[in-house]
What does this fold into?
Amino acid sequence: MLDVDLIKALANDKRLLILELLRDPERHFRPQRDGDLVRDGVCSLFMAEKLGVSQPTCGEHLKVLAKAGLIRGTKIKQWVFYRRDEDRIAAVKELLSSDW
It folds into this structure.
């Protein structure tokens, strides 16, 4: 079922860019000191830098995507690393292509 959180997450170009960048993190981000880009995800600081926005602005985008279930955050030390939830994204793609 389509919900407001999902529609809100998909209705912003920066959030769509985040999903695109996280599809292939090794291609789009430099190696991190803590956390593996693929296994753990991308540090929110790197994400803000890549998007050209402040950390709080990036944090809001990530929060919206996480609330919709499209990404997951993993805390390592004082940082949060984000990666796509591929199962949820596949379910959303199927939902959006169905007759609703």
